[in-house]
Specification:
Layout: H1 3-76, H2 83-147, H3 159-205, H4 210-238, H5 241-245, H6 248-262, E1 266-272, H7 280-301, E2 305-312, E3 316-323, H8 330-335, H9 341-352, E4 356-361, E5 367-374
Parallel strand pairs: 1-2
Antiparallel strand pairs: 2-3, 3-5, 4-5
């Protein structure tokens, strides 16, 4: 067994251990979520009980003040009251005082229980977040070890560069999968759940109220149509089918038309030079660069107008995305942690296409992004 075979064996063992750890992390996260729901419900009950006891304490304090006033009146004019009346006044005041003391103790207990539950809830939320984050990191490491370090012996040269690139790609994949899962959960999954409920309603009304069944079926058809639109949008965001069938320019034209329908920014699309098909990976990369740039315009630029220009040359393609938005400090944004993933994504895509990427922006003067990539004829 060579040293490289030994390394492969070690890596496989590490992968198995990490896989088991990932499952345990998921179990911890699910247990924390279940406990979070239980504690949240208990906290709601305690808060309601606390509010009720506070109202009772307020009412009992009012009664105690009245009892003390009555007792003071009897004490000042005890000669004009019978012994029984004086005794009743003292006993009434003592009873109310005792009841008030019990209620205040109950209020203090509920407040302490509420504070303890709120602290537990915060800790559980932090546990869930840490577990999810750790599971993502473990998933990245596991994916990398499985895909990028297989047969390590033949890939030692340049391993550090591939490692950095692989981690970035896998992180992007994990984020994309989470986004798609969230879109499906919040869109089609919810709609299909409503479809099931309405179908059950139709079954129950079928023999009794045909008019209501017709109305429910119309509603059901609207829900299915909305779900279909959501699914088509998710598929289009993953990879537009027209990109393979028609090419880059028709796909961008359609994308910008849809963008204009749903955005307050008006985008103009212009093509210069002799339009032609490009290699598939280049068309995908250029489309994603334009898509990311326009998403940034929509979310951050507050622009009224933008333009996307493609210029086909013999040996290169130039893409320009320009808007008249608020602009920003490029250097500050690129050095700020967590606020520039879209910009880095565009730059890395341009570099993967062996091209150049340049951005110019100033506060109040809009933003201009220029990408230039060398082109070859499509395969």
């Amino acid at each position: 067994m060579t040293i490289f075979d030994k390394l492969d064996e070690i890596i496989n063992k590490i992968v198995d251990v990490i896989d088991e750890s990932k499952s345990e992390i998921f179990e911890i996260a699910e247990m924390a979520r279940t406990e979070y729901v239980r504690v949240e419900a208990q906290l709601l009950e305690v808060k309601q009980a606390t509010e009720q006891v506070i109202r009772q304490v307020d009412e009992k304090e009012r009664q105690f003040r009245q009892a003390r006033i009555r007792l003071m009146e009897v004490s000042r004019t005890f000669r004009s009251h019978s012994e029984a009346a004086i005794r009743n006044a003292y006993e009434d005041a003592q009873v109310v005082q005792l009841e008030l003391f019990v209620l205040k103790e109950r209020e203090a207990q509920l407040r302490a229980q509420r504070d303890e539950l709120e602290c537990s809830l915060r800790n559980l939320q932090a546990t869930v977040e840490r577990a999810d984050k750790l599971a993502t990191h473990v998933g990245v490491a596991l994916q990398y070890l499985r895909n990028s370090l297989h047969d390590l012996g033949g890939h030692l040269d340049g391993i550090q560069q591939r490692q950095q690139l692989g981690v970035r790609v896998i992180k992007a994949q994990e984020e994309e999968r989470r986004r798609v899962a969230r879109d499906i959960h919040d869109g089609p999954a919810q709609t299909l759940a409503s479809v099931v409920i309405r179908a059950e309603i139709c079954e129950k009304l079928l023999d009794n109220d045909t008019d209501q069944v017709r109305q429910e079926l119309r509603n059901l058809k609207d829900l299915v149509r909305a779900s279909l639109q959501d699914i088509r949008k998710i598929i289009y965001d993953l990879r537009p089918m027209t990109l393979d069938d028609l090419g880059l320019v028709p796909t961008l034209r359609r994308f910008i038309e849809e963008f204009n329908k749903h955005s307050s920014t008006t985008v103009e699309f212009a093509v210069f030079g002799y339009e032609k098909r490009l290699p598939a990976h280049m068309e995908v990369g250029v489309f994603r660069i334009v898509q990311e740039a326009l998403n940034n315009v929509s979310q951050h630029a507050k622009a009224q107008h933008a333009i996307v220009k493609l210029e086909f040359e013999t040996a290169a393609l130039t893409i320009v995305i320009k808007d008249d938005g608020c602009g920003f400090d490029v250097s500050e944004t690129l050095h700020r942690e967590g606020d520039h993933f879209g910009l880095l994504s565009m730059r890395e895509r341009a570099e993967l296409l062996q091209g150049t990427w340049q951005i110019c922006s100033l506060h109040g003067h809009g933003t201009r992004i220029t990408v230039r990539v060398p082109i070859k004829e499509a395969d």
